[in-house]
Design brief:
Blueprint: H1 4-12, E1 21-25, H2 29-32, H3 60-71, E2 77-81, H4 102-121, E3 128-130, H5 140-150
Parallel strand pairs: 1-2, 2-3
Length: 164
């Protein structure tokens, strides 16, 4: 059964003779795996690099990349962009949990857009995957402690071994 991505590529590629480049945007889960797998394997630790091996867990991003690599024909180039975080507004998405970071989101979204445009037009960026980040090295597990301290709240580390 074809995925939506395969169906899209199968419809676009043969019917867009001027198409030169395809950007695939995935994300940080490429390095840390899906949330539901956390605690069941050892994810990579930041900072993340493009050449890190895929963790041995199922991840939809790997499927999308494999489809892209298979579907791209001669003369067509690709790039994969893996931003660490994209904050945005959605009534039906958990990204609203971090709504207080929306200013950062708007800045970072511009960075990602510029990055993808660059990859589409610069010959040295063709057929590459990029860890699209502004250079900050942080870990989410450390953010919550900082926020708790900032707001004078009690903090307790998350223990992956706990069942509850």
């Amino acid at each position: 059964m074809a995925t939506c991505f395969e169906t899209c590529l199968d419809a676009v590629i043969p019917n867009a003779p001027n198409l030169q480049h395809i950007c695939l945007q995935t994300g940080r889960k490429h390095y840390i795996g899906p949330f539901e797998m956390w605690g069941k394997f050892e994810p990579h630790e930041p900072p993340f690099h493009e050449d890190l091996p895929r963790p041995n867990v199922p991840c939809f991003y790997y499927t999308l990349e494999d489809i892209l690599f298979e579907e791209v024909k001669e003369g067509l180039t690709w790039s994969v962009h893996r931003p660490s975080v994209i904050f945005g507004f959605s009534l039906y998405s958990l990204v609203n949990i971090v709504g207080t970071f929306c200013v950062y989101a708007s800045i970072y979204a511009d960075l990602i857009a510029e990055h993808e445009i660059w990859a589409a037009v610069d010959p040295y960026a063709k057929n590459e995957a990029f860890n699209c980040s502004n250079g900050d090295v942080y870990k989410w597990k450390h953010l919550w402690r900082v926020l708790a301290e900032q707001f004078d709240m009690e903090f307790e580390d998350f223990n992956y071994d706990d069942e509850g």
